Amino acid sequence: MTKTSNWDYKIIKSVIPKSYIKLLTDYFTSKKEVYQTMLDKGYINEHSPSDFGTMFDPDMPGMFCIYGDVMNDMLMSNLKPRMEEETGMSLVPTYSFMRIYTNGNKLPRHKDRSSCEISTTLNLDGDMWPIFLKMDDRPNEEIEVKLNPGDMLIYRGCDQEHWRNEFRGSSSVQTFLHYNNVDGPFGKTNMYDARAHLGLPEQFRDIG
Prior knowledge:
The chain is of the alpha+beta class. It has one domain: Jelly Rolls. Helix content is 19%, strand content 28%. The chain is built from 3 helices and 10 strands, in the order βαβααββββββββ. It has helices spanning 18-40, 70-78, 80-87; strands spanning 9-12, 64-67, 91-102, 107-110, 118-126, 131-134, 143-145, 152-155, 161-164, 171-181. The strands form 2 sheets. It has a 6-stranded antiparallel beta sheet with strand order 1-8-5-10-3-2. The longest helix has 23 residues, at 18-40. The chain is globular, with a radius of gyration of 17 Å. The two termini are 31 Å apart. The mean pLDDT is 93.
């Protein structure tokens, strides 16, 4: 499969069924509850490995998130054929990331690291919170994307600046699935985000 360049971003409606959306939402909400209980009981602290998730991400402290969760990584792997169909590329999965946003959170303008060459954001639950994209060839245009639960945005995370304005709702559960183009510069080095296999926490990345 060869790379095509005739898309900037894509919105895929209802990429997963409603029953699976509820399963994932309940799962991640429970993960947050388990994490909070372990934190309150002193079983873990802000310096603990992120196996159970964390609320001390330096990018957005106080918000629960989890890298490379087994369930989420399997979702990324299972959606790979659909992603290849939509992008026209042969892809390798790198990593998944889930966040539960709350009122007042804000995602600053940024571009992603190389493991996020082909990125997705998948809305699972909560209040509407648009994501904005900016294309290098259209510097004066800001593209607003609104996703309903089950909808997924595909975009080029390394090339396209993206952000979210301050969240005015109460909660928003979003998961991010990242891939590399097999035929691109990072197709070999970034497989599984330099982990031995999917499902491993971030500290298992072989970045040395």
